[in-house]
């Protein structure tokens, strides 16, 4: 069995993750901050945007893969994938926008949490039945 939906979702999230990482790396070079955030608020925002993606995206991808392997219907998988990608993009956008766009941040986390919760629910539903 191929994990087509999981693979496609990952293909959308990885460039976002890399872009967030390069924002940190480039700012480190320009600001000569080799470790931590140097008590620089812009650096802290960049580090947290990248860190947040690193914290939530892999868990979402893992849940998506487990659902795909469990036989969750394709339409549901596509919906879960869309929630994850949209959530991560909204959240990243909120940190890039100055001043921070709290509407996008809230939407990003809501979409991500919805994906995680619904994925867990689908694992229970489609593995019990």
List keywords for this structure.
129 residues; mainly alpha
- The total of beta strands comes to 0
Query: Rg from C-alpha positions?
Result: 16 Å
Question: What's the helical proportion of residues?
Answer: over 70%
Annotation field: number of helices: 4
Give the biggest beta sheet. Answer: none
Beta-strand residue fraction: under 5%
Tell me, briefly, the overall form: elongated
Summed over residues and divided by their number, the pLDDT gives a mean of 94
Structural class computed from helices and strand pairing:
mainly alpha
Low-confidence stretches: none
Distance between the termini: 20 Å
- Secondary-structure element series: HHHH
How is this structure best described in words?
By secondary structure, the protein is mostly helical. The protein has 4 helices and no strands. Helix 1 packs antiparallel against helix 2. The model has no long low-confidence stretch (mean pLDDT 94).
Helix and strand arrangement:
Elements: H1 4-31, H2 41-70, H3 74-96, H4 102-128
Helix pairs in contact: 1-2, 1-3, 2-3, 2-4, 3-4
Offer a quick outline of the entry:
With 129 residues, the protein is an all-alpha fold. It has four helices and no strands. The longest helix is centred in the middle third of the chain and has 30 residues, at 41-70.
